[in-house]
Structure prediction request, 52 residues.
Amino acid sequence: GGFLFTLKIIQERLRFEADILWAVKTTHIHLEFFKLNNCATAELKIRTELVI
Prediction:
């Protein structure tokens, strides 16, 4: 679906490492991706989550 496609694009853009891929798969970040549905905002959200 569109969500998985968007997630794939973001993964390619950020060149995720294995541990980051695991973090992206957590429920919280999945929900944020689905709710935001915006590459730029979702990217920022992921980086924020990883820093915290």
Q: What stands out?
A: The chain has a mean pLDDT of 59. The chain has four helices and no strands. The longest helix spans residues 2-14.
